[in-house]
Design brief:
- The protein is of the alpha/beta class.
- The chain contains eight helices and eight strands; from the N terminus they run βαβαβαβαβαβαβαβα.
- The longest helix has 16 residues.
- The structure holds NADP nicotinamide-adenine-dinucleotide phosphate (NAP).
Length: 214
């Protein structure tokens, strides 16, 4: 697949690199330095290049949104028309200090974002993992039981594509249902971060859901 990365920081940089290593064509965009984008593309190997948000989105089969909540409007404006595109978002509705969710209760950041890009096919995924685990999960592919990763959305085909990307990174995709379920996964992400950085866990903490068969 061709994957456009909007926001090439901790999440976008790592996920884009892993998508490229899994064989996808990746365009890294939206960092504060063009050099950084070029370095990311070089380090990710032959399947990646640097570009503008518009380049990243134009021919993409899937676009990854990985910017701080405060940068969403800017990056979406630069990306241009996302009509019909699968938009996978790990962006969390965090305040400027990254200490609390600014959307919650009867809505979620994912639902707010989906309304901003009404004609895109929106899936919330990857927001529940600390970026630090991504490379080790990828390296452990096929060697151990994969950790679970929940995702949600209202477009079934878009979710199938997102599930493929989740698998490519090394996780077991767990479909949590419609996009409104992000009301529960977003606070869950904060719990995971709390456990990873301040509780008894570590950034390597990963979760597993057992599937019970009747
Ligand atoms: N980090 C995690 O473990 C994690 C886990 C789950 C969800 N998330 C969510 O994923 C999203 C991305 O997080 P992240 O940790 O990848 O963030 P990040 O490292 O700060 O990356 C954000 C990207 O946006 C870019 N950007 C472009 N213009 C910017 C500007 N004017 N000001 C600030 N940034 C600008 C940054 O550029 P530079 O590259 O030049 O900094 C960077 O490439 C957030 O919504 C976060 O809540 C993060």
């Amino acid at each position: 697949m061709r994957i456009g990365i909007l926001g090439s920081g901790l999440m976008g940089g790592k996920l884009g690199t892993l998508f490229a290593r899994a064989g996808h064509e990746v365009v890294f965009s939206y960092a504060r330095s063009a050099r950084k984008l070029q370095r990311l593309a070089r380090d990710a190997g032959g399947n990646a290049r640097a570009g503008t948000p518009r380049d990243a989105a134009r021919t993409a089969d899937a676009v990854l949104l990985a910017v701080h909540w405060s940068r969403v409007d800017d990056v979406l404006k630069q990306a241009g028309d996302l009509a019909g595109k699968v938009l996978v978002s790990c962006t969390m509705p965090m305040n400027a200090a990254d200490t609390a969710l600014v959307v919650g209760g009867d809505s979620s950041g994912a639902e707010v974002l989906a309304r901003k890009v009404k004609r895109a096919r929106f899936v919330a995924a990857f927001g529940t993992v600390p970026s630090e685990v991504l490379f080790s999960v990828f390296d452990a592919r096929g060697k151990a039981d994969p950790p679970s990763l929940v995702y949600c959305g209202d477009d079934e085909q878009a979710k199938e594509l997102a599930a493929r990307l989740i698998r490519d990174v090394g996780f077991d995709p767990v479909d949590a249902g419609p996009l409104r379920i992000a009301r529960y996964t977003e606070p869950f992400s904060l719990l995971m971060a709390q456990l990873a950085y301040e509780g008894g866990g570590s950034p390597q903490l990963a979760y597993r859901f057992a599937r019970f068969r009747q």
